[in-house]
Amino acid sequence: MKQLIVNWLATILRCDELCHATDVISALHLRKKMVVGKNLKSHMRLSALARRNSLVSPSLDLTKAKGLRVRFNIHLLVFGIGLYGLMLLSSCQKIEYTVIDSPAYLRVFNSLNTQHTMEAKGDTLSYLAMLINPELDGNGIPVGADILGDFLDQRDGYAPPYPSHIGVSTSQHNPEYPGKENVLVGPVLNGFDLSSWAQVPSGQLRVMFVYRPKNSVGFFDLSSDFRKDILIDTILNLESQEVYTLNVVLKDMLTREKTIVMRQELFHKIPLSDSLVYINFYNYSAKGFVDADISHKTPTGSRLRHLFQQGIRDTMNVFISLYKGQQDFINERDGIILQNSTVASPYYFQRYFTTLRHNNFSESVSEYVSFPLWVRDDEDGISTDLWQRLYFLSPGANMDQNPFDEHAAFYNSLDGGLVDNANGNFAAINFLRNGPKIYVPEASCVGCNIYRYHAGLNFPNLVVSIHSGEHNPRSFATINTVEVINGQAYLMTIQRQYAPPVLY
Amino acid sequence: MEKITLSKMKLHLFMALGLVSLLGLGSCQKPEILLYQQNEEVRSVGDFLNNNFNYTLFSAALEYTGLLDTLRGVGPFTVFAPDDNAFNRIGIQRPSDFAQMDRDSLRYVLAYHIVPNARLMMADFPDDEIDRRYETLAQSSLYASKAVLSNASGRGYFISASANIHFYVSGATVKDSDFVLSNGVVHTLTKMMKPFPGVTVRDWLASRTEYSTFVAGLKKFGLWDELAAEGPNTVFAPSNEVLAEHGITEESISEMDVSDYVGARLFGAYIIYGNQYFIRDYEFYVYNQMQHWYLNPLRDDEEYNQIFMGKFYFNYNASLDMLGSQFFLQDYFDATIDYSLAISKRTTPYYYFSSLATDLVDFLGGGASESIYMPDARRHYNVGVNMYRNDNLCDNGLVHEIHSVLVLPEEALIEED
């Protein structure tokens, strides 16, 4: 048996029966080298070896061996090319990119934020799905759409310039469209960051908003019973490369009619200085909201947190105060206590800013008003600890003789919360921290540790201060929009492009 | 060099194949991998209910009406099963008690507890939504309400409760959920749902003699007919004994002169027009919206309001004063927790903003309890003393039982200006 194998190997290697084992092995070794490296020398060694041992007939000469080698090489070559080609082809994938020609930029907010109280039990929970260019089946139930904005929850208080809620989100609820959706978004247009605006095809679009149950099933996977409740079905005209912001709002408190307000933004077209902070204001509250009884606006017994919850009157004067100094310490339970804020400039203390008019049917754009980023003479032009406060006051009262207390009585005997006796004539916003309550030391008793709650709605600072290049922090001005809708105000911030940071 | 003959070629081929096949034998091993074997002996819903000590009465009722075999069949079914305790509370102790009941109406009620063609786990019911309708085997809809409690909802309250999800179907609380079986899923209820098909609120009241005084009062003041209209309305019906305690009987009603009394207050106080409320809806709104009480101005009576609320505890931390406090909610699986309906000139419950005794005069009937939130009252009532007599679901509204008089005749006199 062993002899048989040796004979077989010997024949393969062109040795005959007299082939010695060691020579076979060394021949094998050399042969391997020959296959891999086309080593002429080893080939010659093989021949020499063969000749020495008379393993091969003298008739085996180089050419023949060369022929053998060539044959081998051709095989190797073909095999090698084939393998390489296969590798090349398999790694080649064609990725389909969605491209929208001549897009318009759209941002959608679900601003149906009236509270679901027990008295209004019949109201549907405002959890929507937005369908653009939907396809309906025979019964009028949507079964497909070009663009789907699903899980559209009520709007968040702060709409950031770029979709930062993607990174911190733990649920599928989307506070805006595009929000967390993975869709094409706007570029930096004329220096303004539009990454929170989705690209949609321009021209005529059929837009449909449908109520959907608040669970994690995708809209088209819901049973058809749950896709029937259509809220709004309308046609919008969007022009190419224009920026639009759309709000779904309650139009009338009594009839509960709901509608869409879409405005075409202008901030990328008007000359805006980069050392001024701009704001404009809208009031998209429902008709009759401020006059309605409090039990229709907030769940009875639940405490008010800020003065907008009662609503604001149809015409309000807006006043601005600028402060410097943001040092605070965290209150044990639920807020911050301001330590060292001072008025930035006497010119910017409760100064008249603009007038806010109720306009939830018009699609006009409010004018932008501004305040400077650098207020005092001693600013370094790099960073500032400026923060802002806005007051909304009915015409007829002025800030000097304001009958309302911004440190409104915080009802402290029960679970807290303020008693709003302003009836919609007064409200305040602090642009300092997003969310936490703000307490200020009682002015009349210095060092007493008595703090008064400030009844303002709290938003992030309009001045963005971040680490930029060699400056940490550096302050940047922004463009902002404040929308007062029913019992809540909302802030939308847009960032602009600056020159790249100076790096060391 | 010897020539390679054909036979040698064959030999080589043969040897090569032989070697290769040896390789094949060597590397091929088949180890036994034990995969997790799912239990193929999962029972059907019918068998589960039949063999479970907690549902003996429910399964006896199902068997009596022939539905148990349906539940053994091809599903999927979603079954809301009241446990034995729920039946005991309404006086059914043994399976034989069902034999005395009308089979068809019992069948309807039991079919109302089954949602066919769907296996709905608790997570499949939408969050924060009240009264979403699901078609049952009885061809009418049940109302599912699920409140999801979230401490991170930014409300600024700290809430301590034993469960974060509060799930109610047609007024009954779902105690345990998601028992998955081969042809469906079972959720446990704390009491039976009570649908009355084809019966309006008016018919329901008329057919029950224990409310005859109340019915007489409604008829006298012209509030009777609209209880057969579309509604929906919610009626809190006082029984004859309760009314008689304060001198309101059918004779006294027949002697009343309609023009002397504000009927909308005297008897209209017991009706909430325009909406149908299960008792548990109050809990839903407490958990979902932190709504402390329900306020409804009385129809046709400008002075008084209806306030509906339940009992919960409040823990005020005096040392922290204005900085918010903890707020505890008691869990309501028990029928003895109080709910109350009060008639008041104020829009807040007594003791909410003040505890002046003089404010009491603004309250007429109302529930009493040691809790500071209950609208204090001169007459005691509790809607919730017997939860099992509430949540009677009629075609055009709901009827609950109330255990006290809300308004005395002398309080409803029209004042002469």
Can you give a write-up of this model?
Chain A has helices spanning 2-12, 21-37, 40-53, 62-90, 165-168, and strands at residues 103-110, 128-136, 142-152, 158-159, 176-177, 188-189, 192-193, 198-201, 203-211, 230-238, 243-250, 258-264, 276-283, 315-324, 328-331, 335-338, 342-343, 351-357, 369-372, 386-393, 426-432, 437-441, 451-453, 457-460, 464-468, 471-476, 479-485, 488-494. Chain A has 504 residues and is of the alpha+beta class. In chain A, the strands form seven sheets. In chain A, strands 14, 17, 18, 20, 21 and 24 form a six-stranded mixed beta sheet that branches. In chain A, strands 1, 5, 8, 11 and 12 form a five-stranded mixed beta sheet that branches. A five-stranded mixed beta sheet of chain A has the order 4-28-27-13-19, with no helix packed on it. With 417 residues, chain B is of the alpha+beta class. Chain B has helices at residues 6-27, 45-50, 56-65, 67-72, 84-89, 103-111, 201-206, 212-220, 240-245, 250-255, 263-266, 279-289, and strands at residues 77-82, 114-116, 129-135, 141-148, 158-160, 165-169, 172-181, 184-189, 194-195, 233-238, 271-273, 294-297, 305-310, 313-315, 326-328, 339-344, 392-394, 397-402. In chain B, the strands form four sheets. A seven-stranded mixed beta sheet of chain B has the order 2-1-8-7-6-4-3.
Give a quick rundown of the structure.
The complex is a heterodimer of chains A (504) and B (417). By secondary structure, chain A is α+β, with helices and mostly antiparallel strands.
Q: What is the share of helical residues of chain B?
A: 10-25%
Anisotropy-based shape of chain B: elongated
Low-pLDDT segments of chain B: 151-162, 313-337, 353-384
Count of beta strands of chain B: 18
Q: Trace the largest sheet of chain B across and list its strands.
A: 2-1-8-7-6-4-3
Strand content of chain A: 25-35%
Largest interchain contact: A-B, 43 and 47 residues
Distance between the termini of chain A: 80 Å
Give the overall silhouette of chain A: globular
Mean pLDDT of chain B: 77
Global Rg of chain A: 37 Å
Judged by helices, strands and strand pairing, the structural class of chain A is alpha+beta
